[in-house]
Amino acid sequence: MERATTGSAVPVSLDGRSERRLIETDGAARYVAFTVRVAEPSGMLPERAPLTLAVVLDRSGSMAGEKLETAKRATLAVIERLDERDRVAVVTFDDRIDLLQPATAVTSIVKSRLREALGAVQARATTALHEGWLTGCHAIAGVGDGPARCFLLTDGLANVGLIDPEQVASEAAGIARNAGIGTSTFGIGADYDEHLLGPMAVAGGGQFHHLRAAAEIASTFVGELGGLLGVAVRQVRLELALEAGVTAEVVSTYWVEEAPGRLSVALGDLLAGDERQVVVRLRFPAGGSGTDRALRARLVWLADGAERQGEWQLLSFAYGTPAACAAEPRDSTVMHWVGLHEADRAERRATELNRQGDYAGAARAVADAAAEIASYAGDDPALTAAAAELQRAQPEVAAPMASLAAKEMYATAQRRSRSQRDLRRG
Questions:
Q1: Which of 79, 87, 150, 238 is deepest in the core (most CB within 10 A)?
Q2: Per-residue confidence of the chain (426 residues) as pLDDT tens digits?
């Protein structure tokens, strides 16, 4: 195990385990499960870092009434919990973008000014989601040295400006990597696009929240804020170095950047006590018996304004005879996480296929995953339950799904795969 220490005496550790060490000589796939842990600090708690926050609110016509009024109250509730150490910016958008408050220290005067400014906001027009979000990120770029996050709340489909999910997510990843600004997304109701907001939050290192009703806005806003105020390790990423001919696929729901022989998995900001699981599927080429292969892994993070790097951890593999490979048991702990994250991925994929009208493909996605997980679940109750959940989902995804049900399935699977809490109930 690698154990590295951040500048604030909060240790962050990386533990990597493979399902099996031996590889068939004609090539094979092997899973590796990485556990990233941030320990609880001992002794006195360190003083929290100043927070920089941008709140970006959709004020398009569909937000009229309770949704917009609740969103405004939730924004004020978040701002009330900040103080002069922190910086806040507020943006509202429809087809026009208004920067209600440029980034500034959260004084009592600023709080009063924002109460008045938000009180005057009215719903109108269409949804320039990308430009509104980008304006919020730009408003807090280069402001402060602590955690920085953009909250994006919307209830509708982006229909003005850039709307391609892959392009928007890629931009969110770039802003997180280069400016240190994370993105959390809050979709309310049945009409927004979870396949846009979900990837934005993954790429931005934040959390995607599916809100079923306006009443859930406040608890998720305040819950996210509570996490940000307790960030212990910033901009954590897992780096993998691959030998020639070896490829890797990240099963878990994280943003991945690839370069020749390298993978970088963005985990975002982590709290003391956090634990993240990252499941990776390696594909080894054919090789001679007795030949060794290796995977190197390490953590990289930001502390005290500088990038820190942990020591490389080595996981070794070797080509073996068919009999030796068949006799080697799978690591049950690794397969526990493999099964859970494969189940989550299958559910997210099924909602996407269902939305595209490929109902047979959606049903196959969950049925195949259920059968595969059942084949190695053994006496693991969590895997048995995951396989059963997929089987129950098969008839649901095999026909047009209700929008709210599809969003709930997608959001739950993404949240579980990223070890994030459901903040809707506080």
A1: 150
A2: 333 444 445 578 999 999 999 999 999 999 999 999 998 877 666 678 899 999 999 999 989 999 999 999 999 999 999 999 999 999 999 999 999 999 999 999 999 999 999 999 999 888 889 999 999 999 999 887 889 999 999 998 888 788 888 999 999 999 999 999 999 999 999 989 999 999 999 999 999 999 998 889 999 999 999 989 888 889 999 999 999 999 999 999 999 999 999 999 999 999 988 999 999 999 999 998 878 999 999 999 988 778 899 999 999 999 999 999 999 999 999 999 999 999 999 999 999 999 999 999 999 999 999 999 999 999 999 999 999 999 999 999 999 999 999 999 999 999 999 999 999 986
Measured between alpha carbons, how far is 128 from 166 in angstroms, rounded to an integer?
A: 17
Q: State the Cα–Cα distance between residues 164 and 225, nearest whole angstrom.
A: 28
Q: Distance between CA 155 and CA 161 in Å, rounded?
A: 17
